[in-house]
Amino acid sequence: MKRKGNRQIYLEDELSNIDIVESPIDPSVQREYQDLSDSIDLDNVNYQEILTEAEELFAGDAPIETKKRILVLLAHLGTMEAAKILERYLRVSKKDLKDWAVLSLKECRVFLESVLLKEEGGFVSTGLGGKDNKLRYYFIVSTREGLTLTGSERENLQEAFKGSSDEYDSEIEEINIGANYAMVGILVPMNVAVGAVIEEGIRRCNRMGEILFVDYYVTNVKKPTKGEISRYLRNVRREGK
């Protein structure tokens, strides 16, 4: 996310200046935050008045829409004073505005750093968040024809994706293996295509025999539920893969 009028982030050229929001943020909240930011004429705002109005963030009777507007404006102020107010608010913010507080503080810090370092910066926020310079994903791989994994095949699968993860400087956070599938939670560097990590893991796993389909499901929005996993596996079988 960048200042209004110049919001496109080109990861290939600016990775060193891009930060990741580690907390998972609901995509609908991100869209609402962005839409509100786009709707405000940021060139005609009296930021001294905003600093005064900022105390409304801590007033229990202030309308939630008023607080959202103040959070966006403080973020774009991009000063140390604004960042301190946002830090203070984040510590006491309620559930309905916690994600807004996280986004506004991150954006404020990005603007502040861009002034201090005289470099354009930005940040990336996804439904699953991330860590350091890595984005969090979940992916599902399944066996051919729905065959049940044997004990040795389970071990082979874990070793295959561990090897692929290491090769691409990624980090597996969790791996859950079912009868005929595996769901993996993984952190992947921003300059690495998550598909490359998954496909290398499948290739390694299939060295000992064609165990896994080459097709897979991957998301950085939210962790798949049991119901979503079941639907995916049914769709795979229905398509005859």
Descriptive account of the structure:
The two termini are 39 Å apart. This protein is an alpha+beta fold. A hairpin with a 2-residue loop joins strand 3 and strand 4. It has helices at 11-14, 27-39, 47-53, 64-77, 80-92, 95-117, 151-167, 194-205, 226-238, and strands spanning 18-20, 122-124, 130-131, 134-142, 171-177, 181-189, 217-219. The protein folds into two domains: 11-124, no CATH class; 132-238, Transposase IS200-like (Alpha-Beta Plaits). The chain is 48% helix and 15% strand. The chain is elongated. It contains nine helices and seven strands; from the N terminus they run αβαααααβββαββαβα. The strands form two sheets. Strands 3, 4, 5, 6 and 7 form a five-stranded antiparallel β-sheet that branches. A two-stranded parallel ribbon has the order 1-2.
Q: Key terms for this structure?
A:
single chain, alpha+beta, Alpha-Beta Plaits, two-stranded parallel sheet, disordered N terminus
Summed up:
The chain is α+β, with helices and mostly antiparallel strands. It has helices at residues 11-14, 27-39, 47-53, 64-77, 80-92, 95-117, 151-167, 194-205, 226-238; strands at 18-20, 122-124, 130-131, 134-142, 171-177, 181-189, 217-219.
